[in-house]
Design a protein that fits this description.
The chain is α+β, with helices and mostly antiparallel strands. Helices cover 35% and strands 28% of the residues. Helix 4 packs antiparallel against helix 5 and helix 4 runs antiparallel to helix 7.
């Protein structure tokens, strides 16, 4: 007799890479103080510590700076690091820079780069049901470990987990998002097969923009009030509008997505950000 399909709402397996910390700041007008107050001791530390080196080590992650446009924020700083402690070190290194005295925190978001294995998890769950087993049993766990390792080693997943700053794409957009948990629209009560189908459809829309938009997805469950962060890079900022508009018509978004504030700007060097912050009258 055929086994009844498992329709329970199993969590999908995920692969994680670098930790990510988005920080948004507004520039405090000349003559006022920001959130960070450096005393004489801290100022002396500034002249001896290699804080700038800490922020620019490519083999240990990297940091992104951007001038934010059209927002209460003026500056966005994004740190990518292999460990959570590394994020803390980068955060402190930035706070020790002299420009930190002129910056006031507007928003921050802590997460980790993520690749969701919806399709793989759903497939393994079906295979477990067909053989009379269950999700989480010994055979399921062993097969999951094997196939997850193969997924992690793929070039596509490596780019998602350990992103680099795209060449020729100077515009950046960041926003947090959730999946709805409302009566009649609860993403977390859908079966794994249904969520896998919806995410596949959602992904097909994103593929239309391959080569035009680079997307970094980071998971924040347990780290932030929002569940995911989305960071986009493009050559033409109108692509942000077109991509997000089209994706909102996918069922995964139209029925189940909630979006936070969008921050848009242009990537800059740390030196350019320092010049922006230190310009008299800013």
């Amino acid at each position: 007799m055929p086994r009844t399909p498992d329709t329970r709402a199993h969590a999908p397996e995920t692969l994680e890479g670098w930790y990510v910390h988005h920080q948004l700041f507004s520039i405090v007008p000349t003559g006022q103080s920001g959130d960070v107050h450096l005393g004489e001791d801290a100022a002396r530390v500034n002249s001896t510590r290699s804080d700038r080196a800490e922020l620019t080590q490519p083999d240990a992650g990297w940091s992104l700076y951007a001038r934010v446009i059209g927002s209460e924020a003026d500056v966005m700083v994004v740190h990518f690091r292999p460990t959570l402690d590394g994020i803390g070190d980068a955060q402190l290194a930035f706070r020790r820079l002299p420009i930190a005295q002129r910056l006031r925190s507007v928003y921050s978001f802590l997460s980790v780069t993520e690749a969701g294995l919806y399709h793989l998890t759903a497939k393994l769950a079906r295979e477990a049901a067909e053989r009379g087993g269950a999700v989480g049993d010994e055979q399921y766990t062993a097969e999951l470990a094997r196939r997850s390792a193969t997924e992690r080693d793929s070039a596509h997943v490596q780019r998602r987990l350990y992103p680099t700053l795209p060449d020729g794409m100077p515009y950046v957009c960041f926003y947090p998002m959730n999946k709805k948990r409302e009566t009649g629209q609860n993403w977390y009560t859908l079966s794994l097969d249904e969520r896998s189908r919806l995410m596949h459809e959602h992904g097909l829309t994103g593929r239309k923009y391959a080569g035009r938009v680079v997307q970094v997805i980071s998971g924040a469950v347990g780290f932030d009030a929002w569940e995911w962060g989305v960071t986009l890079f493009t050559k033409d900022p109108l692509d942000f509008k077109k991509l997000v508009s089209e994706m909102r018509f996918d069922e995964a978004s139209s029925k189940y997505a909630e979006f936070g504030v969008f921050y848009v700007g242009r990537v800059a060097s740390l030196e350019q950000i320092e010049q922006l912050v230190e310009t008299p009258g800013s």
